[in-house]
Amino acid sequence: MSHHISSLEAHRLQYKPKMPKTLASGRIKIEKGSFVEPKANAAEIKQLFPATYGYPLVRLVEGESDLSTAPLCVGVVLSGGPAAGGHNAIAGLFDALKAANPQSRLIGFLGGPKGIFTNKWIELTAEKIDSYRNTGGFDMIGSGRDKIETKEQLEGCEKTAKELGLNALVVIGGDDSNTNAAVLAEYCATKKFPLQVIGLPKTIDGDMRNEFIDMSFGFDTAVRTYAYLVGNICRDARSGRKYYHFIKLMGRSASHVTLEVALQTQPNVAIISEEVKARKHTLDDVVTAIAQVVVQRAEEGKNYGVILIPEGLLEFLADFKVFLKDLGALLGQEEKQIEALPKEERVKFVAAKLSGASGELYKKLPASLQEVLLQRDSHGNLTVSQLETEKFLADLVEARLNEWKEQGRYKGKFSAITHFFGYEGRCGFPTNFDADYTYCLGYAAAQLIRGGLSGYTVSAKNLAHPVEKWEFGGVPVTSMLTMEHRKGELKPVIAKALVELDKAPFQYFAANRERWAVEDCYLSPGPIQYFGPSEVCDARNKTMLLEAGLE
Ligand code: FBP
């Protein structure tokens, strides 16, 4: 065995991902369905995507195959944050292309979308692929957050595709990257340039999904990693009985990760951003709600506990909404001027420019938040992982408890420890679910390419069920688009799937959380298991089981 890989890695390289018979049989055909209109802004989207708007849904079904067996040259790119299973998606794509025609080639673009328009790539050989099967991470070819949007970027992609003789490009990414896939597909269709573009639904956030896609890949591995750590902290809290743990969990916008980890570990408090928004709660309301649980527990002699906070919380608070919109618009208008300033001057500049209530709020925030709030990624998103919301909240809760102590309303002790679990969940060995799922996604992408399709994201249904029942197909990206403000500009984007308060996962949580707040109902899910009984190794996460009515 090589000395450069762990024993687990050596074993995982041998794992054979499970596939439904439809894909495994090799007798695959594409069945066309109906056209689905975008849920909102259909007219604007039709206008922006005249060449690719109106495509039908498609399903991969078993039958006499009429898919192309001509040799293909396909490119693949990993985009955005890593998510466990990316390497398997590439392996599935590779195996499917080679199964259809051993002369087909797979090109891996390096460092994310930029690798396409700057023409940086490597050929993915069987040897390369074999050394990454079932491993976590995106390090096989790297990733990046560059967009494919401007004229220069689109022309750069075209030039590279021409030089390489690319027939198709598979973009593995989240909502923004799949939107970019649609932009490139539209560009190619308009110019009658023969490059097909297919997207895969990736993100640990679990929000790149809808009625066509049960789950984005990487979510399962991430939530199991966090739930293991949170479960251990719950045990530690109950053992030491002296700390309140404020744990921020990754998930840029939606709270699926926090909700799932709460379902797996049953902490004392879990804030769900979507509920905060629906109830129009302010920061003060959230602080009060947490402090009340601390008081209740102190009355039972419990001066310890575990509190989960979704990293995207600030954007959902009623008093932050207008402020963040004003700030986003200002950053859009003054982008060049702000960038030209030294870092320490930027906060002062923004504080002076933001007027009214937004300006007042900004000035009151801790310096660490003020600075991070000025950062945006290339898609215009707040860099919420860098916001120390957990520390900010812990401090505010402590201040509130001190006030209540003075008023005689609280007699306990409060000592907070803060954590952020984010990056540790994105690159672990994929769970069996993510390993199987991503392999199938890559395999399905190859079939859509063989069928001549472009401007589609691979769709996946029945994922809560055993693999045999999984169904794959394609959903036109334009059918999933809506219009949103980014840096003050209206842009087409795939609508993020947020936690729905009337659906089973949140309902289950809401029905139990009062008990979890006071009693110690902590669960220890333990580490991810790759070997052993199928009910442990192949188990589905609670979100998927509850949504499918299987729990
Ligand atoms: P994607 O949407 O690209 O999959 O990334 C998700 C995510 O992990 C978020 O949960 C997090 O807020 C963000 O990436 C962190 O970004 P970065 O890796 O650039 O720090």
Task: Give your account of this protein's structure.
It is a single chain. By secondary structure, this protein is of the alpha/beta class. It folds into two domains: 16-218 and 430-486, Rossmann fold; 220-425 and 502-547, Phosphofructokinase domain (Rossmann fold, 3-Layer(aba) Sandwich). 43% of the residues lie in helices and 15% in strands. The chain has helices at 7-12, 21-24, 42-48, 86-100, 114-117, 126-130, 151-164, 175-191, 219-240, 256-265, 273-278, 283-299, 318-333, 335-340, 343-353, 356-364, 367-372, 389-406, 432-450, 504-518, 534-537, 542-547, and strands spanning 28-35, 56-62, 73-78, 105-109, 121-123, 168-173, 196-201, 244-249, 269-270, 305-310, 416-421, 456-461, 471-476, 481-486, 489-494. The strands form three sheets. It has a nine-stranded mixed beta sheet with strand order 1-2-13-12-7-6-3-4-5, with helices on both faces. A four-stranded parallel beta sheet has the order 9-10-8-11, sandwiched between helices. Strands 14-15 form a two-stranded antiparallel sheet. Helix 12 (283-299) packs across helix 18 (389-406), helix 13 (318-333) crosses helix 16 (356-364) and helix 15 (343-353) packs antiparallel against helix 16 (356-364). It is globular. The model has no long low-confidence stretch (mean pLDDT 95). The chain binds 1,6-di-O-phosphono-beta-D-fructofuranose. 1,6-di-O-phosphono-beta-D-fructofuranose (FBP) is lined by residues 80-81, 83, 145, 174, 202-205, 250-252, 311, 384-385, 426.
